[in-house]
Amino acid sequence: MTDKAISPLRRRLIEDMTIRRLGPGTQQQYIRHLKSFADFIGRSPDKATPEDVRRYQLRLASIGTTVPTLNAGASALRFFFRVTLKRRDLAETVVSVREPRRLPVVLSPEEVSRLLASTTNIKHKAALSLTYATGLRSSEVVSLKLTDIDSDRMVIRVEQGKGKKDRYVILSPNLLDILREWWRAARKKGWMHPGQLWLFPGYRGQHMSRRQLHRLVCMAAERASITKRVGVHTLRHSFATHLLEQKTDIRIRHDSALHPRRYQRPRRGDKPARLPVKDARLTRRRCHGQRSRWPTSSAAAGRLGARLMPAM
Hints:
The chain is mainly alpha-helical.
């Protein structure tokens, strides 16, 4: 699209989103929702009225729009009215919908073993094994670089994950062996040439896409005869659930794959969590500079990670 095709109002919206460092996906989503709103009212969105906003959201609800889509559109309208137009009166008329909370789909260890064993090549096996054994999100898996694998400390560095935060996750010995096998196979085929950064390269010098990773999970689940609705995030939920079932405290490290709930800001109305006496005593020791008993060494991380990977 050329610069002449962009209206001044749309350009200002893009500039406001750029100033606030909104991601490319978020910007495209906001622009798409604003265009849909403008098409509905039949004129420029800066001339909208509170009644227009009400009719538009009523239309979305009447045609069965999903709750995430409704809330995404509400966020786009609210940002446009409040930031770009400085019209707080219109922003206050936008309504968000409470999203129902459902239990995630979790695979059993036996189902995970079948899923990983059903992969057709070493690249697919390495990608899915890493996804399960670390609990990473799909965007974090595909954007890993070769230099992010630290075999000396037995950790994987995740750069700019959700919330624009860096963190480390554990690297199990079994997973390290699979990644090395994948690296040797990719190097033999010329995929790991000098200057290639990504752990899972894709086309045109880019990394594997999130859609491709999701497709790999679905195909592996189908070959393993798993009837549950499985996606990349299912492996993440299974990772956390299997840890808890093994009586492993996921608060072992603050930079673990899943951030502990006690480090997050409590929601309004929630009661403050009470730690057991032993945990509270260890927390006080850490705060006063004394040595903690949490197993934070790389050897302990390796033993913990080894229990995550099923025997294959």
